[in-house]
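Input (structure):
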């Protein structure tokens, strides 16, 4: 029996340190059917369900709204600090895409071969704004 892909939002808002998807290749995909096809290809290539995250636009916006409403002053400061870090503009760009109705695909890359394999699959499924979030750097991958 095939396990369903992990649909829990990965780009967590309001959780200090959780907004940086270290070790993941992240990209924007325009519609859910295309995302499902990409996920199927990733699974067929051997990627585990727990390594594949689809952040649906509606869930990202709901999460963004809920965390904005329920944040304490200290939490708001921490999130504002995160937005001001080097990765802030990259993460913010993904949330802007969610506001446009697009979805974010996040796949754990355990090594450089995985990065290349994920990248090729993403490009073949018209994923754009592809980036690898490494330990110390964010790498733009041409799409």
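Output (sequence):
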């Amino acid at each position: 029996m095939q396990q369903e892909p992990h649909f829990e939002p990965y780009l967590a808002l309001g959780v200090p340190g959780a907004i940086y998807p270290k070790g993941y290749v992240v990209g924007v995909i325009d519609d859910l059917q295309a995302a499902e096809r990409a996920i199927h290809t990733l699974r067929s290539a051997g990627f585990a369900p727990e390594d594949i995250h689809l952040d649906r636009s509606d869930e990202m916006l709901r999460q963004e709204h809920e965390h904005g409403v329920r944040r304490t002053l200290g939490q708001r400061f921490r999130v504002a600090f995160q937005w001001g870090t080097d990765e802030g503009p990259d993460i913010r760009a993904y949330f802007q895409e969610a506001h446009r109705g697009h979805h974010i695909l996040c796949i754990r890359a355990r090594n450089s071969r995985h990065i290349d394999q994920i990248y090729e699959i993403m490009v073949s499924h018209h994923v754009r704004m592809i980036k690898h979030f490494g330990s110390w750097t964010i790498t733009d991958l041409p799409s």
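Notes: The chain has one domain: 24-141. Residues 17 and 82 are 8 Å apart (CA to CA).
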